[in-house]
Write a structure and sequence with these properties.
D-Maltodextrin-Binding Protein, domain 2; 2 domains; six-stranded mixed β-sheet; globular; disordered N terminus
């Protein structure tokens, strides 16, 4: 319920903001067309959202597939730019990328800094990974413990303020997980889907687990753009809605072994798949 309320409140704010800046429509769409490419910032820290194929050295993952489809629908080439949680907002604000598909959930703080595509393409919450021997049974067990996160993570605030963890921000998810494996953190908290794949697929992580059934602050996953880019926002939002109407979004989500959450099913219901 909290997630839906946050989304609704921010949606109203976006509409009101759009009214005030409608006379100053952005030129990003024209730039993309004239350049012949759309530049997308991607976090490539690991499956299932974004990673580098060790054989081909090409980016793969859900967010890569979404970026490729956006480029295809725009009729331009895709330019992928690797960003980290510490650099992604800066890259967008400085115009180094046109949009972000960078594992960023919608919250009020981020909405103050950036614009976003109103229709979410998924949702994510924080999963806690720790040694099985730590016997964690509830989020309160991190009180006074060092918990590693990525710099800029929206999980840092609740871990600190709500659960009393000593939060340690590191440049990226791989750095955080390396610190955990090296014994420098009691636990790490990141989007849960990649962590579930890690402990189930990688024997090097056989001593670790995600012991908590409930994710930390699950929120909608959205595409981010610069503030005031109304034309660009409307075009990309139509693409996202069409992903639902064609059934492609759920198909591609399952392909990457990402759970279909109740919220994703709820959004899918708003855009019924057309019968063939």
């Amino acid at each position: 319920m909290k997630t839906v309320q946050i989304l609704g409140a921010l949606g109203v704010a976006a509409v009101l903001s759009g009214v005030s800046i409608a006379a100053h429509a952005d030129a990003t769409l024209d730039k993309v067309k004239s350049r012949g490419s759309v530049i997308v910032g991607l976090v490539l820290s690991g499956p299932p959202f974004g990673y580098i194929d060790p054989k081909t050295q090409q980016p793969l993952g859900l967010n890569v597939d979404l970026a490729e489809d956006i480029a295809k629908r725009l009729g331009v080439k895709l330019e992928s730019v690797a960003v980290t949680p510490a650099t992604r907002v800066q890259f967008l604000q400085q115009g180094k990328v046109d949009l972000l598909l960078a594992n960023m959930q919608l919250n009020a703080e981020r909405a103050e800094l950036m614009g976003y595509i109103p229709t979410p393409y998924g949702d994510a919450g924080g999963g806690l990974i720790t040694l099985k021997s730590n016997k964690v049974t509830q989020w309160e067990d991190v009180k006074g413990k060092t918990v590693c996160v990525s710099q800029g993570s929206n999980y840092a605030k609740p871990l600190d303020e709500q659960y009393g963890a000593n939060v340690k921000g590191l440049p990226s998810q791989p750095d955080s997980l390396l610190a955990l494996k090296g014994g420098n953190c009691f636990a790490s908290v990141h989007d849960s889907a990649p962590l579930h794949l890690l402990v189930s697929d990688n024997p090097e992580w056989k001593d670790f687990e995600l012991p908590l059934p409930a994710d930390l602050i699950p929120l909608p996953s959205v595409i981010w753009v610069r503030k005031g880019e109304n034309d660009f926002t409307n075009v990309i939002d139509a693409f996202v809605q069409d992903w639902y109407r064609t059934g492609w979004l759920l198909e591609i989500t399952r392909k990457h072994r990402i759970p279909i959450t109740p919220l994703l099913e709820e959004w899918q219901a708003k855009y019924p798949v057309a019968k063939k």
